[in-house]
Amino acid sequence: MVVGVFFVFLAVFISHLIPFLPVPGYLATITYVATVRGDIVDMAAAALATAFGAALGKLVVFLYGYGVGKAVMGEELVYAKKLFNKVSKWGIDVAVFIFAVTPLVDDVLYIPLGATGYNIRRFFFSLLAGKLVLATAIVIFADATLAVLDQVFGNSWISSAVLAAITIALTVLVLRIKWSKVLAAYETGGVREAVRAALRSIVGK
Fold first, then answer.
1. CA–CA separation, 167 vs 198, rounded Å?
2. Are 50 and 131 in contact (CB under 8 A)?
3. In what helix (H) or strand (E) does residue 47 lie, and over which residues does it extend?
4. How far apart are CA 103 and CA 181, in angstroms?
5. So where are the chain's domains?
6. Contact present, 130 and 37 (Cβ < 8 Å)
7. How far apart are CA 115 and CA 136, in angstroms?
8. Which end of the chain, N or C, is more open, meaning fewer C-beta atoms within 10 Å of its C-beta?
9. Which among 78, 107, 113 has a CA at the least distance from the CA of 93?
10. Residue 129 has pLDDT above 80, yes or no
11. Where are the beta strands (DSSP E) in the chain?
């Protein structure tokens, strides 16, 4: 158990280290859940390892903003500033939480926050809370989906492989979303246009 949980933590941590280059580290979480099905303690440990791995990885990205964030973001910094101004009206802590728990490209918020010297404790607690919600949802989703797939295929290995393929496919689709276009659509037409812009970018239009 300890080795498996540590592997989940390490895989998720590494996958969240590199700004604007997300890697499907949550595959490690899903793989581990597939091996401990029905064990509440192990599943809870997987959720905690996932949350802390993701949060600490993004904390490094935040600290990255203190140093060379402004220099390397280039044109992305313009989008980041617009997005930062948009979400600031909710309260920065709430914005960090929302970005942590959704598929939004969170680096465009975290790097500018680091560059502006935002309070690191407040940032980390909001970030960790969001990642805990997300990690718990991933663990529950994986366990429930595997149960359904087992009924369909009657084989746990096939079920795990299918779930891994679904996870990779969803990751690819999310990565195709052009969030700058989604933001522009939201500014001109609200939520409906933003959703349409997201869908158009997914299908490559």
1. 19
2. yes
3. helix 40-67
4. 15
5. 2-174
6. no
7. 30
8. C
9. 113
10. yes
11. none
Question: What is the model's pLDDT at position 189?
Answer: 79
Q: Which amino acid is at 148?
A: V
Distance CA(138)–CA(159), nearest Å, equals: 16
135-158 pLDDT, tens digit each: 999 999 888 888 888 888 877 788
Could you tell me which residues come within 8 angstroms of residue 15 by beta carbon, excluding any fewer than 6 positions away?
22, 23, 24, 25, 26, 57
Which amino acid type is present at position 78? V
d(CA 89, CA 199): 26
Give whole-number Cα distances, 139 to 3, 26, 45, 67, 178, in Å. Answer: 18, 10, 10, 35, 27
Q: Which of 7-11, 119-123, 128-132, 192-196 shows the lowest mean pLDDT across its residues?
A: 192-196
Q: Give yes or no for a contact between 41 and 49, defined as CB atoms under 8 angstroms apart.
A: no
Q: CA 47, 51, 52: angle at the middle one, nearest 5?
A: 120
pTM for the predicted model, two decimal places: 0.76
pLDDT above 60 for 33 = yes
* Buried-state track 55-74, b at ≥16 Cβ within 10 A, e below 16: bbbbbebbebbbeebeeebe
